[in-house]
Amino acid sequence: MENKITVGVFVILLFSLSIGNLLCGDRIFSDNENRYLADKPPVAVSSVLSGNYTEKLEAYINDQFVWRDAWISLKTKAQIALLHKDINGVYMAKDGYLIQRVSEQDLDREQIEENITALNMFFAKTSLPKNNLSLMIVPTSGLILSEKLPPYAQMFDQNEMIDSIKQSVPNCLFVDLRQQLLDKKGEYIYYKTDHHWTTRGAFAAYLSWCETVGIPSPEANYSIEEVTDSFHGSLYSKVLYNGVPYDSISIFRYQSPHRFLVEYEGGKSQSDSFYQRERLQEKDKYAVFFGGNHAELKITSDNKNNKRLLVIKDSFANAFVPFAAEQFESTHMLDLRYFHGNVYDYITDNDITDILVLYSTVNFASDRNLDKLRH
Known about the structure:
Layout: H1 2-24, E1 29-30, E2 35-36, H2 45-50, H3 52-64, H4 68-81, E3 86-87, E4 90-92, E5 98-100, H5 109-125, E6 133-138, H6 141-144, H7 158-168, E7 173-175, H8 178-183, H9 199-213, E8 222-231, H10 234-239, E9 247-254, E10 260-264, E11 269-271, E12 296-301, E13 308-313, H11 321-324, E14 330-334, H12 343-349, E15 354-360, H13 361-366
């Protein structure tokens, strides 16, 4: 009888989940995870024989599994009850911080070397003076807030990586942020539930950049406005544990003498603000900065100093660029994940005078799109 009950419960569970998957249908986008979900792969003999079909089918089932978010939350609660600190690639760190786990085994050393080569070729081909070229590799909270990690945490050596890039890319000004951020680590410079730095962290990096490239540090003529106190970021989405606190997002309001025009994707839409406050009503509230990532974005100001900055970037730049834009007649951002044009033509067409490449350590180690800088 016990065996029959066990089998019966198991069959009912499988039947219920199967019916649930059929009735719910496929989802296209996950607001919680801020990404597109896998589609059902087409069946082809070649993909079945190569194993590619099986991999895509597994990703599809994982993404489209009914009540996926509820299962993730339940799993996290069970692991926390068992005193686990490493959950779904996230460390449950001290003081409510979630810190992304990236170990040495997760790194592609060959990709890092290829990206270093691409940067050297790019800086050499731009024909701009060294003092007009800068490189910023942003350490993540795993380095700056390392004392909050569990004692056994296995993290890759960010110091070694940053030192290697600094030594291997000599034809630019390297903006070393480590000491500046370490000096500020007692402040709120990284979100607790998201992998990005806060606006305060981005401002600290901006001051370091100004010092490195020889731009006068701005006067403290700004106020800080908290625009939300209910932000759960990308790392929260991996664990879905309501026991972690909410983050707040602030913007620095400069008493700027300049007016700005922000043009998205070659002028398809325009704004007179760096911030899209309507995005604060969505899950990904970090998108308040420029509405998230775009292939190409241009900021024009009435600061007619004949200086035009190009920022080749990942999403860390979104909170940084509002500060830098104060110093230039125009500021351009290219995200190579989405930009498929020729970067050198873009530099020529827009008469770029200064270039900043800004990536976090984790994204620099994994991004395959920097190869576009070779051509």
